[in-house]
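Objective 1b: paired records.
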Amino acid sequence: MLAILKSCTLSGYEGVLTLVEVDVTRGFPHFDIVGLADTAVKESRERVRAALANNGYKLPSDRITINLAPAAIQKHGPVLDLPIAIGILAASGQIAATARVLDTLMSGELSLEGKIRPVKGVLSMAITAKKNKVAALAVPRENAAEAAAIQDLEVIPVGSLKELVAWCQGQREIKAAVPYRAEESGLGFQGDLARVKGQQAAKRSLEVAAAGGHNLLMMGPPGSGKTLLANCLPSIMPPLDSDQSLAASQIYSVAGLLTRGRLITVPPFRNPHHSASLAGIVGGGSVPRPGEISLAHHGVLFLDEFPEFSRDVLEALRQPLEDRIVTVARAQATCTYPANFTLIASMNPCPCGHFGSDLECNCTPPQIQRYLGRISGPLLDRMDLHVEVPRVKLDQLQEHGGGESSASLREKVINARDIQQKRFAHSKIKLNSQMRPADVRKHCNLDDASQNLLKSVFDRLHLSARAYDRVLKIARTIADLEGSEHIKTAQLAEALQYRSLDRKYWNS
């Protein structure tokens, strides 16, 4: 007898509708799974065998063949345990092949006692179920809240094999899951910029970076506050809209990082250690999974001690910074992950950290050049804002009261982003940093005085074509922060001063 059930597997971060075809026929006892199943999928034979026996069901002593279609796509993980078990029961006649059995997309890992354990990527599975107009989705109880975030989809939370069988047979009803309320939590946990003493120039650069989604490089001696400033950046960024929240949460779901099914509602902040591998930052592995740059999607990737990261990792950032996606190619599959993030990097000016400061530097010129040379010119060119973060003086540390609060700056950033939303309402662009050359020419017009200023500085700073466009994008963001329809000379001058750090240190 044949039973065909619906399930879902993951390819990259997207779900693929998978048909679990279970055939039970007379013959020599055999249990075979075909359809490019990996080790974890094939091991489901033993989990299903024990789960059925421990719940009063029988594994037929016949020939059992299970085909996972489409057979050309690799199947990973234990997500197919549940449909395989229900399919065997239906194909062997132990339960009726009702509409609930055949029309419900099922996913879950079985324990040997028949409990259903949570799995990764349920949010992607729910999106796939809705796209394919599946009637209902049965998932582990721990995953139900994230799946319920997809509207107009009935999500059935189940905790055991017996519970699912009873629901499939109409012997009991299970209340459909509801999503957690979107909670704007974590908007201030990173810290308040009002508590940061001094560093007004660095705070201003953070404001510009948050408003336009610009990449920022901070350079200064140890203890000047670079890490503290970076950790405050999410506190001045607006919460994610519904589409951004769903996109970021989908990546976290695939990585198994969603907390109790709560969707990501604030910009993610990722701070990997400089010893992180290329696969850890970019993504990959034998079973491809998203890396830090994808986990920072619609958020911030902070790379502290920038030159200490391996050269391969740093150079691998160049393409995602331009294309805002990353493609991981493997022999069996090619996966594309979104990577629309703001890069914040911090570094010392030399190995000892005191070059250019009021403290004595013990490094030789070759040592300094080797240290700075770890950051290539093309990568440096992709950093929109360059800012020096000097040591804080004693009188600044002893000041009572701080500067402008994160809440106040956040309102300015939101207003600037609202201007950009209206400007790009009829395109896929959301922020000034995403403008293409044609958009720059359209939205970054300069008056004669500004043109003359740019001409006088262009050759002196040896700006590349990419840097030229980025200066105009930054000027456009500064104008938006000040509510100016046109770019003024003072706003262009401020944008230009953010491009002088590389000329000071790298071309010295």
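Objective 1b, second protein:
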Amino acid sequence: MNQLQKPVKLSPELSEFVGGAVEMPRTEVTKKVWEYIKGKNLQNPANKKEILCDVKLASLLKTEKLNMMGIAKALNPHFIK
């Protein structure tokens, strides 16, 4: 099992965001965040690589907009080592 598939402890904020799980692989967390982004239509229509965060996502990621490649970095503080 590689590092990305190994379950890691989640911060209370991230745990609540993903539905209450206290541990989850990073890949699954990223998948859930993307489901949320797509479900809420948060991609900038003019530039699909840009995510325009709503209040819930902005409070989790501590930013109002980010590049799709920055999601993993923004989630990093929520993975407890």
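The chain has four helices and six strands. The two ends are 17 Å apart (CA to CA).
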